[in-house]
Each structure stands twice: as C-alpha cells, then as structure tokens.
C-alpha cells in the first residue's frame, strides 16, 4: 500500500511539473508577442492576446462563447452577486453571452497579467460531440454559463501550437481548424467537458435557448415580443422566461437591451460615433433613455465610459 501511495504521489508531482513547464513555455511565447500592454487581435481567427502591466478598474462587459487561459497574474469577475477570482494556471469557459464586471487584480511591469482568449464555434462543438458519441450530462447536472477550472499541460501545448501558427501564415487555412478541433476534444474530455456537452445536447432547453440567443444577436434592433421568442424556442412564455434567465442570468428583454447597449459601446469605441448616433443605430428613440440605461449597465455615462476604455 505504501509503495502504491508513493507511486501515485510521484505521478502527481510529474504531472504538476509538466503543467508548470508547459505554462511557462506559453508565458514566454506570449511575452515575445509584444513588450507593450494591450489587447491584440492575432492573425489566428478568433484568438486574442491580453497583456496588462498594472491592475485595472472594474469594467462592465459581456463574455461570449469562448475559452480563455490565464497564464500570469490574476483577475476578478463579478457575476450576479458573486465575486469570482481567476488566477494563473486556470481557464474560463463561457457557454452563453454573460454580462459581468471584470478587472485585473494582479499585474506589474516585470510580471504582467497575461491571458489568451479564443472564441469557440458552436457548430464545431456540436459536430465533435456527435462524432465522439459522448454521454450527455444527467438530469441532476448543474449547468453554469461560466466555468473556471485548473488546466493541464495538454491544453497549454494545444494553445501554444495555435499561437505559433501566426509565424507560419502559409499553414493558417489548413492547420488552424485542426488545432481548434483538438482543443474542443480536450475540453470535452476535461473538467469543462460537461458544460460543453450540456449546450450540445440536442433537444435540451439550453440548445433551444442558444438558438434564440443567436437570433437575438443578429436581430437586436428589432422589436419582438416574449410570446414570439417563446414560440421560436418551442416553449410556453413562462417556461421560456425561466430557462432563459437560468442560462443567461437575465430576462430575455433585458438581454436584448444589453446587446443593443454593447453594440452601441463598440460603435463609439471603434468607429468614433457619438452617443446620439450610436443610440439611433441600435434602435433607441430617446437619447436620455439610452444614457440612463447605458450608465446602469456600464457604470458611467457614454462619453465618460468611452474615455475610460481608451485609457487601456
């Protein structure tokens, strides 16, 4: 028995060592990407690199379907009434667009906060689940729109190969889809797996809600009633409202409002629109109502919020 225990302990130590080595290799890879802080969109579709040299102020934002890996430093998320820390060596999976407040809590010039973020493709997740014939979560499974887990060296190596392809543009079209599928396979078999399997469960409420969310993201300027949305989800209005809030954290109408405000924010930040132009673009008829609801979601009036964002 003692020999068995010693053998398992040694195996665990080797596993931790391998993960630390793989983590450090990816840290060096990201630090070599840029010596300046900022958020960088890479040539790999959907892949971003985030570097911060100092802690940041809390920012209201919406996390979409995606996977992020914290390599160095730490951050804190406010989700509903919960404060959730995310530290180096941990990853975060978001399976539904979720409004949160996020800020970097640990970062210095010599030890900057480093993270890589990859948008995930719902169709790829569905296809991979079908190919692997994976078991679905049982009815007692507690689904979470945001999952935080420790990572193993397999994930680090996969993300390292993905980022390295930016140095070999001739292979982007052929190899990026393969590595993204490898990542999805590893996630499905890892600690995040049941969360992904849940949203891929054909016929489950989450699958119907996700289709509605996809529609809402494309048509957020349209006026639509609760009964119409519930009908598209093949649910009663009351059941639709309950399942929608359980998965997204807000009511359907509030969610639609958040999408409009998020789009307005991006238009002001990226395309230089003023508040009136942005509010008209996303379907607001009242500029004062837009300003009130914007301040409620993002914590500051439009002009001051955009000024704050441009400091980072």
Outline:
This protein has 312 residues and is α+β, with helices and mostly antiparallel strands. It has 12 helices and 10 strands. α2 crosses α4, α4 crosses α5 and α7 crosses α8.
SSE inventory with pairings:
Elements: H1 2-33, E1 38-41, E2 47-52, E3 59-63, E4 66-72, E5 74-79, E6 82-87, E7 90-94, E8 98-106, E9 113-119, H2 122-132, E10 146-150, H3 153-164, H4 172-189, H5 193-199, H6 205-218, H7 226-232, H8 237-248, H9 252-271, H10 275-281, H11 287-298, H12 302-309
Antiparallel strand pairs: 1-2, 2-9, 3-8, 4-7, 4-9, 5-6, 5-8, 7-10
Helix pairs in contact: 1-3, 2-4, 3-4, 4-5, 7-8, 9-10
Could you walk me through the main structural features you see in this protein, from its secondary elements to its overall organization?
With 312 residues, the protein is an alpha+beta fold. The protein has twelve helices and ten strands. The protein has helices spanning 2-33, 122-132, 153-164, 172-189, 193-199, 205-218, 226-232, 237-248, 252-271, 275-281, 287-298, 302-309, and strands spanning 38-41, 47-52, 59-63, 66-72, 74-79, 82-87, 90-94, 98-106, 113-119, 146-150. Helix 1 (2-33) packs parallel to helix 3, helix 2 packs across helix 4 (172-189) and helix 7 (226-232) crosses helix 8 (237-248). The longest helix has 32 residues, at 2-33. The protein is globular.
- Our count of helices gives 12
Coarse shape: globular
Radius of gyration: 21 Å
- For the terminal residues, how far apart are their CA atoms? 56 Å
Mean pLDDT: 86
Please identify the structural class as seen in this structure.
alpha+beta
- Biggest beta-sheet profile: 6 strands, antiparallel
Task: Report the helical percentage.
Answer: 40-55%
Physical arrangement of strands within the biggest beta sheet: 1-2-9-4-7-10
Stretches where pLDDT is under 50 for at least 5 consecutive residues are: 1-17
Q: Give the topology string: H per helix, E per strand.
A: HEEEEEEEEEHEHHHHHHHHHH
Query: What is the strand tally?
Result: 10
Residues in β-strands, percent? 15-25%
């Amino acid at each position: 028995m003692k020999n068995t225990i010693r053998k398992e302990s040694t195996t665990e130590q080797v596993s931790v060592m391998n993960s630390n080595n793989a983590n450090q290799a990816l840290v060096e890879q990201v630090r070599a990407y840029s010596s300046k802080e900022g958020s960088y969109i890479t040539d790999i579709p959907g892949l971003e690199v985030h570097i911060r040299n100092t802690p940041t102020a809390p920012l209201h934002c919406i996390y979409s379907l995606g996977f992020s890996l914290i390599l160095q430093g730490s951050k804190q998320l406010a989700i509903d009434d919960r404060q959730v820390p995310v530290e180096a060596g941990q990853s975060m999976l978001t399976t539904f667009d979720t409004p949160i407040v996020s800020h970097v809590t640990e970062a210095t010039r010599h030890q900057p906060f480093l993270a890589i973020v990859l948008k995930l493709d719902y169709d790829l997740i569905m296809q991979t689940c079908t190919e692997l014939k994976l078991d679905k979560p049982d009815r007692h499974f507690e689904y979470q729109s945001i999952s935080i887990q420790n990572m193993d060296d397999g994930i680090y190596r996969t993300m390292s190969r993905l980022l390295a392809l930016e140095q070999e543009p001739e292979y982007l079209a052929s190899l990026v889809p393969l590595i993204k599928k490898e990542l999805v396979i590893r996630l499905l078999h890892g600690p995040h797996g049941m969360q992904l399997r849940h949203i891929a469960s054909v016929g489950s409420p989450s699958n119907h809600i996700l289709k509605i969310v996809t529609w809402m993201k494309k048509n957020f300027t349209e006026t639509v009633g609760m009964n119409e949305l519930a009908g598209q989800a093949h649910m009663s209005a009351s059941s639709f409202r309950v399942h929608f809030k359980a998965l997204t954290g807000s009511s359907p109408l509030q969610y639609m409002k958040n999408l409009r405000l998020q789009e307005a924010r991006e238009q002001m930040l990226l395309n230089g629109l003023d508040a009136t132009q942005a509010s008209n673009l996303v379907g607001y008829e009242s500029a004062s109502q837009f300003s009130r609801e914007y301040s409620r979601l993002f914590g500051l009036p439009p002009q001051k919020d955009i000024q704050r964002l441009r400091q980072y």
